[in-house]
Design a protein that fits this description.
By secondary structure, the chain is of the alpha+beta class. The protein is about 55% helix and about 5% strand. The longest helix has about 30 residues.
Length: about 425
């Protein structure tokens, strides 16, 4: 089969019916040569219709609402045209595929000729307007960009969006809480760090493994037991806890800072979400990230050393409260920082030093009394100490004092984060 001859025949068939045809070649570039045409675009009763041909098929592309919008006689004419295209395809040994524009998985080259929008082309940065035409009947989450989004595309499905909003009670408050909105923000934040899994999850785990490997090789079996266990078993939970602390802080802080730098924090500010809903959504996303890191780290570490959780209640309690504290702290830091240099200063001169001076690599039993006293006021010490207890059933501090102290710190930091966000600190002019 000579596709060039097929294209010429199709052009003659369409030209006899429609005077204004737009032709595109196999690179989706406009052409005037009918034999090179692989895309044919025209208006049918003021409705955009496209036809694409290849070695196997003839595709008739239209909007699903086309027939329903026509009068009875025009509908009959449309069906007759569709049958004519089917007969043309059969005559030329091609398959016939009538396709709804909403159900197409458009390729880069197809976009200009098969979409209903000629002015916007698909690329990796701007995305595509094809999502505008997808059915929304099963949608449970809607993120509608501002009019200043990169593509400038206007959503034409506002009526459908309104129906979905009513169906799923989007924006409705139950017990004065926008549950759907808060959950949507939480999911968005979770997907944000999962989209760069290697950086947010794998990276910290590899870092911990390197610490474990280097210290194991450097010390070997010469190091005496610490808190009744081998040093390597003492060290491993501390390394996991250190990553939990740092990554929980990193998530919430980076979310707000990137929003401020990129300018899309207005989407969060303008959403029907209260300050408490925003703070909890971001903090719980931080907790989720920390939980994933800790579980994957334990599984990975268990390949090399005999590490196992012995007290699950203590494990999850300390994991939750520690991640909550650092998520709230990161939230505050994200509001305060105006650029990435500011955040780097907080991380390098506050978070990392406190992590290393918290008993990650050593026990307090060998420290002078005044340093032990200072450590008791370092919340990082209680986070790591309690986390380690869930693995080795021994600790330097006190569970009762440690948990009470951490709960108090978590409440104070959340109140600060809530108050600053509610006042619009550095995010509202």
């Amino acid at each position: 089969m000579d596709l060039n001859l097929v294209a010429q025949d199709l052009f003659d068939e369409l030209k006899s019916r429609y005077s204004h045809l737009t032709l595109g070649d196999d690179q989706a570039q406009t052409t005037t040569d009918p034999q090179l045409a692989r895309f044919f675009k025209f208006d049918w009763n003021n409705n955009p219709v496209s036809i694409a041909i290849d070695e196997d098929n003839l595709r008739l592309v239209y909007n699903r609402d086309l027939a329903d919008s026509l009068e009875e006689q025009d509908q009959q004419n449309w069906y007759q045209f569709a049958r004519a295209m089917r007969e043309f395809a059969i005559t030329h040994n091609l398959g016939f595929k009538p396709q709804d524009i909403e159900k197409l998985d458009l390729k880069q080259g197809d976009f200009e000729f098969l979409s209903q929008v000629n002015t916007v082309q698909e690329n990796r940065m701007h995305g595509t307007t094809r999502t505008t035409y997808r059915p929304l009947d099963k949608t449970k989450m809607i993120i509608l960009n501002s009019p200043n989004n990169p593509s400038g595309t206007v959503c034409n499905n506002l009526e459908e969006l309104a129906k979905i909003a009513k169906k799923y009670k989007i924006g409705v408050r139950r017990f004065n809480i926008n549950w759907v909105g808060a959950y949507t923000l939480y999911i968005k934040e979770t997907l944000r760090f999962l989209s760069v899994f290697g950086q947010t999850i794998v990276g910290p785990i590899v870092t911990s493994l390197l610490f474990l490997l280097v210290i194991s090789l450097a010390i070997g079996e010469t190091r005496p037991n610490v808190l009744g266990v081998e040093y390597i078993l003492f060290l491993a939970p501390g390394l996991i806890a250190m990553q939990v602390i740092q990554q929980a802080f990193s998530h919430s802080s980076s979310s707000l800072l990137m929003g401020k730098v990129m300018g899309n924090i207005v989407d969060m500010i303008g959403a029907p979400l209260s300050a408490s809903e925003v703070t909890f959504a971001l903090i719980f996303a931080s907790i989720t990230r920390s939980l994933m890191i800790s579980i994957i780290s334990i599984i990975t570490f268990s390949i090399f050393i005999d590490i196992a959780i012995k007290n699950y209640f203590i494990f999850f309690t300390y994991l939750f409260v520690s991640s909550f504290i650092m998520g709230a702290a990161g939230f505050i830091a994200g509001l305060w920082a105006d650029k990435f240099d500011h955040m780097a200063t907080v991380t390098n001169f506050v978070i990392v030093p406190l992590s290393f001076l918290s008993g990650t690599f050593y026990s307090l039993e060998k420290l002078p009394n005044f340093l032990v006293t200072l450590s008791y006021y370092n919340p990082f010490f209680h986070m790591i100490d309690g986390f380690r207890y869930s693995f080795i059933n021994n600790m330097d501090g006190s569970i009762k004092f440690g948990l009470n102290y951490l709960f108090l710190v978590s409440i104070v930091l959340w109140i600060i984060a809530y108050t600053l966000y509610k006042k619009g600190y550095k995010i509202k002019s």
